[in-house]
């Protein structure tokens, strides 16, 4: 009975001058999806497509002869397995997604295929199809086809997925096209999509395009969250476009968004990075006018900025201000920034007093705190105090690193005790501490000053076998020593070793070689 009903239904569907019999239409569609360039991994898709068209659930069947022929083709390239005639489609929608993907990927006649399946497509299936495509451009192609020819009203998720995938590929223009379609179709974009496009433009260095896009967004009345601006400002600062960040902040401040503490922290960090600490201080003072208050990150950033430009006293004054504010407490970063500033100025007394104040306040110093103090005492010729600070470091459970040992070696070498520095070099091996480029530079320079050129040369040989990418200032003292000793040929060998280590000679190197060759002549 069911067989008769099926035959009758097939005859009814095939009536009319423009109707093609179901079996023939299935054969046409399946033939369209076959290509000689089929990849082995597509075998499953071919199987599913064949099963889909041979299933009773979709009201037509291909002939047994054609099914057998299709199997033989698929098995030769894609290793498709034959399946039982009794197999059924358990999840028709999921199967339809896979079949649509296969058809769209392989079809020579896309319009014919999708015209045949259009009555089964809906926005949710279209989203699943686009999500299944690994190539964003293929997803975009399907989006445009289904939107234009099948009149599919895509969902927000589809637009969001396409914009994200295209931006990840750096296809900003295509992503912007999808965004425009989204707006045209009456779907309001949210801040997350705006943020993706803005960030993508910024990553590619298209800052003007990002700014123009933000201006366009505001013209459409789309509300943008402060997070979008903060992220864009942060990217501008990271790319050393601080002036552009400040300009964007001023242009978009009042009409478009209200800044928060993160906005100001980004600008303060950028201004301090380029040495504009006074402007950064102005932004710190103006935060209250926008309903937000500086946090410890704001103060630490500005204090560090003052200390980097040797305005340590201003940083110290700001520390005292922090101590008087309720809800904000200085931390180890606050104190260490000022201690480091005093050490760079050589004011070890002020650095020591501030260190004692920090400890008495219950703030535990970290390894960076000890390193800057040890380095400061060493450079000031106070090795006794440097070693005492080293002992405190061990006592408080802070582990010395290569920076710590290099600072001690440098202190010994400055005090004329190069052999003590060499002992620490040997201790580094025992502690399994790998020297850095500055460890080599300190010892080589000290050995050359004592005219121990061969020992310095041995360090260069050791450096040659390491993975460190050296700088010219490591080689120059040794080259100079050999040139002054009349061994210009050995100096030239060292220059060749420099180039092997991808270290290009600088002006000082060439000057030394020119003078050395003149002396030799």
Automatic annotation (TrEMBL):
<dbReference type="Pfam" id="PF13041">
    <property type="entry name" value="PPR_2"/>
</dbReference>
<feature type="repeat" description="PPR">
    <location>
        <begin position="366"/>
        <end position="400"/>
    </location>
</feature>
<feature type="repeat" description="PPR">
    <location>
        <begin position="155"/>
        <end position="189"/>
    </location>
</feature>
<dbReference type="GO" id="GO:0003729">
    <property type="term" value="F:mRNA binding"/>
</dbReference>
<feature type="repeat" description="PPR">
    <location>
        <begin position="260"/>
        <end position="294"/>
    </location>
</feature>
<feature type="repeat" description="PPR">
    <location>
        <begin position="471"/>
        <end position="505"/>
    </location>
</feature>
<dbReference type="InterPro" id="IPR011990">
    <property type="entry name" value="TPR-like_helical_dom_sf"/>
</dbReference>
<feature type="repeat" description="PPR">
    <location>
        <begin position="295"/>
        <end position="330"/>
    </location>
</feature>
<dbReference type="Pfam" id="PF01535">
    <property type="entry name" value="PPR"/>
</dbReference>
<dbReference type="InterPro" id="IPR002885">
    <property type="entry name" value="PPR_rpt"/>
</dbReference>
<protein>
    <submittedName>
        <fullName>Pentatricopeptide repeat-containing protein At2g06000 isoform X2</fullName>
    </submittedName>
</protein>
<feature type="repeat" description="PPR">
    <location>
        <begin position="225"/>
        <end position="259"/>
    </location>
</feature>
<feature type="repeat" description="PPR">
    <location>
        <begin position="436"/>
        <end position="470"/>
    </location>
</feature>
<feature type="repeat" description="PPR">
    <location>
        <begin position="331"/>
        <end position="365"/>
    </location>
</feature>
<feature type="repeat" description="PPR">
    <location>
        <begin position="401"/>
        <end position="435"/>
    </location>
</feature>
<comment type="similarity">
    <text>Belongs to the PPR family. P subfamily.</text>
</comment>
<keyword id="KW-0677">Repeat</keyword>
């Amino acid at each position: 009975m069911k067989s008769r009903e099926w035959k009758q239904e097939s005859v009814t569907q095939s009536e009319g001058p423009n109707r093609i019999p179901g079996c023939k239409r299935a054969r046409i569609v399946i033939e369209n999806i076959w290509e000689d360039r089929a990849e082995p991994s597509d075998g499953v898709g071919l199987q599913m497509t064949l099963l889909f068209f041979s299933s009773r659930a979709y009201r037509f069947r291909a002939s047994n002869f054609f099914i057998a022929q299709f199997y033989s083709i698929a098995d030769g390239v894609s290793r498709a397995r034959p399946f039982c005639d009794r197999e059924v489609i358990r999840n028709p929608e999921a199967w339809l997604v896979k079949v649509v993907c296969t058809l769209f990927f392989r079809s020579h006649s896309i319009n014919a295929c999708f015209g045949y399946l259009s009555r089964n497509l809906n926005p949710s299936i279209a989203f699943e199809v686009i999500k299944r495509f690994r190539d964003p451009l293929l997803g975009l192609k399907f989006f445009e086809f289904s939107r234009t020819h099948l009149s599919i009203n895509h969902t927000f998720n589809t637009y969001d997925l396409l914009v994200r995938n295209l931006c990840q590929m750096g296809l900003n223009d295509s992503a912007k096209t999808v965004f425009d379609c989204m707006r045209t179709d009456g779907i309001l974009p949210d801040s997350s999509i705006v943020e993706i496009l803005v960030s993508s433009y910024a990553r590619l260095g298209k800052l003007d395009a990002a700014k123009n896009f933000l201006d366009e967004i505001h013209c459409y009345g789309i509300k943008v969250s402060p997070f979008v601006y903060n992220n864009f400002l942060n990217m501008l600062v990271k790319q050393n476009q601080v002036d552009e960040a400040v300009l964007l902040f001023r242009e978009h401040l009042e009409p478009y968004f209200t800044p928060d503490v993160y906005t100001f922290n980004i600008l303060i960090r950028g201004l301090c990075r380029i040495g504009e600490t006074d402007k950064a201080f102005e932004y710190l003072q103006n935060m209250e006018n926008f309903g937000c208050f500086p946090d410890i990150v704001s103060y630490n950033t500005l204090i560090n900025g003052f200390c980097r430009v040797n305005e340590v006293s201003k940083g110290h004054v700001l520390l005292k201000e922090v101590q008087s504010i309720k809800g904000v407490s200085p931390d180890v970063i606050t104190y260490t920034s000022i201690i480091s500033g005093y050490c760079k100025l050589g004011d070890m007394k002020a650095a020591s007093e501030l260190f004692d104040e920090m400890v008495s306040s219950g703030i535990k110093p970290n390894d960076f705190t000890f390193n800057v103090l040890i380095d400061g005492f060493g450079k000031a010729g106070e090795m006794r105090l440097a070693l005492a600070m080293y002992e405190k470091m061990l006592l408080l459970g802070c582990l010395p690193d290569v920076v710590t040992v290099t600072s001690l070696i440098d202190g010994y070498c400055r005090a004329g005790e190069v052999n003590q520095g060499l002992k620490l070099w040997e201790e580094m091996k025992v502690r399994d501490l790998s020297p850095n480029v500055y460890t080599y530079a300190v010892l080589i320079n000290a050995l050359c000053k004592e005219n121990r050129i061969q020992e310095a040369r041995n360090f260069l040989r050791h450096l040659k076998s390491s993975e460190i990418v050296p700088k010219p200032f490591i080689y120059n003292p040794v080259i100079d020593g050999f040139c002054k000793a009349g061994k210009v040929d050995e100096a030239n060998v060292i220059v060749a070793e420099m180039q092997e280590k991808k270290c290009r000679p600088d002006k000082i190197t060439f000057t030394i070689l020119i003078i050395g060759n003149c002396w030799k002549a």
